[in-house]
User: Which sequence fits this backbone?
């Protein structure tokens, strides 16, 4: 009968086997990605990549603006004139000042310092002054070759106005991006690190276990041992959570820290706590939390 039942049961295909393996790996990876430290590291990497792109395109915009500023200031000067070459340095120098101000703003936002006071207004005025100079020089560069001030090429005017304005808007957006990244990273990082609460319950437990080992040796007062156990039970009456063997170490540390935080309230860690407090998916929380076991079971 058993052989017949086994033959009637269809064999699992290779695709199903691979899919099961992928699901298992995805569950483990999802649990690791929920780690606050992993989330904070991922956010920092994204901030670094986005910042590099913004600096790159800001540098390209400043380089384009430099051509318009140089054309306006150089005028009819020949390349043999040192001033012709010196005017190429003006816009990069002003752009360097702008980048320095932006780096200062980004660092202050990263340190979560409020810079909405006089220093912020001074930095904003400096950025406005830099944009006004670049915009004016770029507009003058859009004139018709050899024409008067009002003889402006519309296409050149559009391009030479667009780039300075975009450059300034990027300078305004970058500090806001850094501030939002700083807030998100601060929210992702754990406020109470796991190693901090762990030594608290560990010290009394070892002391209690040492007293329990010392008292049974005389054996004249066997009944006095029960109040000692009761007293130790009052210190740690809440069952400790038992996790699945495949649970990563960082997830175990988070659950243990949560247990140390909830235990003084007189209740054990539940699946709801893992979902609401640690933001685990319900399926993953039910998978790793097997059952709570009484704390006295761990004593020798």
Assistant:
């Amino acid at each position: 009968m058993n052989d017949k039942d086994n033959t009637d049961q269809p064999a699992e295909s290779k695709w199903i086997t691979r899919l099961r393996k992928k699901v298992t790996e995805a569950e483990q990876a999802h649990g690791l990605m929920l780690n606050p430290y992993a989330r904070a590291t991922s956010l920092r990497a994204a901030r670094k990549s986005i910042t590099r792109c913004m600096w790159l395109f800001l540098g390209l915009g400043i380089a384009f603006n430099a051509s318009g500023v140089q054309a306006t200031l150089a005028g009819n000067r020949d390349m043999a004139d040192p001033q012709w070459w010196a005017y190429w340095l003006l816009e990069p120098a002003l752009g360097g000042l702008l980048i320095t101000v932006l780096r200062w703003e980004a660092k202050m936002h990263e340190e979560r310092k409020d810079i909405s006071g006089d220093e912020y207004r001074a930095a904003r005025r400096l950025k406005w002054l830099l944009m006004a100079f670049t915009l004016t020089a770029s507009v003058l560069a859009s004139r018709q070759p050899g024409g008067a001030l009002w003889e402006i090429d519309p296409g050149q005017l559009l391009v030479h106005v667009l780039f300075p304005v975009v450059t300034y808007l990027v300078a305004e957006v970058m500090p806001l991006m850094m501030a939002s990244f700083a807030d998100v990273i601060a929210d992702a990082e754990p406020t109470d690190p796991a190693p901090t609460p762990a030594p608290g319950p560990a010290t009394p437990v070892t002391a209690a276990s040492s007293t329990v080992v010392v008292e049974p040796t005389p054996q004249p007062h066997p009944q006095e041992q029960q109040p000692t156990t009761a007293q130790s039970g009052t210190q740690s009456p809440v069952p400790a959570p038992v996790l699945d063997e495949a649970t990563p170490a960082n997830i175990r540390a988070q659950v243990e820290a949560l247990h140390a935080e909830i235990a003084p309230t007189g209740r054990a860690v539940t699946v709801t706590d893992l979902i609401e407090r640690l933001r685990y998916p319900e399926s993953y929380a039910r998978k790793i939390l097997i059952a709570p076991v009484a704390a006295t079971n761990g004593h020798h």
